[in-house]
Amino acid sequence: xxxxxxxxxxxxxxxxxxxxxxxxxxxxxxxxxxxxxxxxxxxxxxxxxxxxxxxxxxxxxxxxxxxxxxxxxxxxxxxxxxxxxxxxxxxxxxxxxxxxxxxxxxxxxxxxxxxxxxxxxxxxxxxxxxxxxxxxxxxxxxxxxxxxxxxxxxxxxxxxxxxxxxxxxxxxxxxxxxxxxxxxxxxxxxxxxxxxxxxxxxxxxxxxxxxxxxxxxxxxxxxxxxxxxxxxxxxxxxxxxxxxxxxxxxxxxxxxxxxxxxxxxxxxxxxxxxxxxxxxxxxxxxxxxxxxxxxxxxxxxxxxxxxxxxxxxxxxxxxxxxxxxxxxxxxxxxxxxxxxxxxxxxxxxxxxxxxxxxxxxxxxxxxxxxxxxxxxxxxxxxxxxxxxxxxxxxxxxxxxxxxxxxxxxxxxxxxxxxxxxxx
Amino acid sequence: xxxxxxxxxxxxxxxxxxxxxxxxxxxxxxxxxxxxxxxxxxxxxxxxxxxxxxxxxxxxxxxxxxxxxxxxxxxxxxxxxxxxxxxxxxxxxxxxxxxxxxxxxxxxxxxxx
Lengths: 423, 113
What we know:
The complex is a heterodimer of chains A (423) and B (113). Chain A is mostly helical and 423 residues long. Chain A has 20 helices and no strands. Helices cover 70% and strands 0% of the residues of chain A. Chain A is elongated and about 75 Å long. Chain B contains two helices and six strands; from the N terminus they run βαββββαβ. Chain B has helices at 17-32, 83-97; strands at 2-9, 36-41, 49-52, 59-62, 71-79, 100-105. In chain B, β3 and β4 form a beta hairpin. In chain B, α1 runs antiparallel to α2 (83-97). Chain B is globular and about 50 Å long.
């Protein structure tokens, strides 16, 4: 990559959200902001190789995009958008104070993640407006056609305009709930990268996890005091730290206990642990993401699966159960309980979850594993079948299939008599 | 900016005394705080009549234009700065009348370019 191309890529990564956010504030319209920002970056691709990279790429892009936006508004103004033209006449090239720019990106995030929008629309809008991903990239990320994704984003922008979804940081009263809405969107993006769904995609999508981490870092810069923001970022970093060890050479997912811990990313772990320690020192009651981050901190502190402080993990899940009664939390707690009290106890505690988690692959996978450890091979095999059936991730299905087939082999020796499976 | 807050229910049972008292308190607040434009309650959809005068003769049909399990039993029209304000009012309105509330913006001049 040439120096200019690198500069353009870097400017896109660092400046896209800033440009869209400041244009949205100035012109009060996401559509205009998005289009003008895209045109400004296209102009950079065209001009920078010949003219050289401007000394302040962000300012160049903002100015260029601002001019494109005014051009468009003047064009449309002739077709009757008088109010917009008036606004532009009074607001040509306003000086943007530095602090306000930071606030603009926060405003943009809150608007894109507004609870009045459908969840898929929030995810798509955030990736487009804040993340700067192109429409084809977002469509590919969620395995829908570009037309569908385009309509989803267009409809969301139309609703923002027509229903007047505000462009501002919510009031103190609404803030915790709205921040949690933004975190949910970022977590959805991350999870799709962590365990991608569908037969036609890579099983691990580091493009999506990296994007989610980038957005979480941005949110952390904008809301440095928020414990859950720090918690989600730490959770993402500690999860991402393991990604090189999560996929085997033949494309199977590798379980936590079987991962090569030397392949974990020490820098990401150190950063994640720092954040977890910071939250512990704050002494505030932790939210869901902070507890999940702490659980991951325990796992990433153990150099070997046998060194894992399982009682600490269970204690953290107990804390999580108190604020999050979801059956998925109960399932994960049971998996940790099995390491202390044995598979029989754990199996007893997940039986009650069958009704709510019957379509959830991880429930069947956990049951299959517990049954395998209890030597109940036939039931285990049936549970593996159910897990493979509902697994959306190809690498996970491959892993589960191998475990199931090993079960078949280890149950019968040459004489056809059952032998106990290895511990 | 005006919003239509439609009250949705699956029966045309009138508000109970407690509900009516809560609705009165909410209405007073809308008026005091300057959000109030108009409001009203509606009897069940069986009282509706549909007129179609797009053709040569006006056709009169008994009943609502759409049979549905849930229907509008009342509404508020409010003046609010943005959707966040409207949603907060709708949240309180839903609690007061003990029914679901749908929030819809009115078209503005900017929408009809």
